[in-house]
Automatic annotation (TrEMBL):
This is MOSC domain-containing protein. Residues 20-169 form the MOSC domain. One of its GO terms (molecular function) is molybdenum ion binding. InterPro entries: MoCF_Sase_C, MOSC_domain, Pyrv_Knase-like_insert_dom_sf. It comes from Tumebacillus avium. Pfam families: MOSC.
Length: 181
């Protein structure tokens, strides 16, 4: 079985599309990534703040699987950790296959509960033309598949670094499929 590991961690104090990689990030329970623009109990994503600034922040942490970068590279794109705005880049975890409520134990103490899928936006095409279409797909039934990672909330804080192990804990059945948040 492939090792489940944190490949990279990233954060940005401003609402930039890409986030610079860091040596470590600190997750804060109920808030998100310390010093990141999306830190907080209520929504920070600018379009959602306009709709209702009191909504709970279900997007405190953005995770993307490094395997997506390999897939995109095979399609002619050059994308590396942090460039699509994620805070945690993983390897060996089928993030998109997780049910809602799955918990990821990152490093020694941090726990992130997966709340849903990241909905890719047009900023992807401004970063690299055609990238948005490349992170969308369809299943056999014609349902939209969003591949741009998952979002989560911080249940327990702690430092997260590249090389940290990831442990996955599934919720009780029946599983709820991930939907965009």
């Amino acid at each position: 079985m492939e090792k489940r590991v944190v490949v990279a961690v990233s954060s940005s104090s401003s609402h930039t599309f890409s986030k610079p990689t860091q040596d470590s990030i600190k997750l804060l329970a109920g808030l998100g990534v310390e010093g990141d623009a999306h830190l907080g109990e209520t929504v920070k994503h600018r379009s959602r703040v306009k709709q209702d600034p009191t909504q709970p922040n279900l997007r405190q942490v953005h995770l993307i699987h490094a395997e997506l970068f390999e897939e995109l590279q095979s399609k002619g794109f050059t994308v590396s950790a942090g460039q699509m705005g994620e805070n945690v880049t993983t390897s060996g975890v089928d993030l998109l296959g997780l049910p809602a409520g799955a918990r990821l134990y990152l490093g020694e103490t941090a726990v992130v509960e997966i709340t849903g899928l990241r909905n890719p936006c047009a900023q992807l095409d401004r970063f690299q033309p055609g990238l948005m279409k490349a992170v969308l797909d369809q299943d056999e039934q014609g349902n939209l598949i969003r591949k741009a990672g998952v979002m989560g909330i911080v249940l327990a804080g702690g430092e997260v670094r590249p090389g940290d192990a990831i442990r996955v804990e599934l919720p009780s059945e029946p599983y709820r499929p991930l939907e965009r948040v």
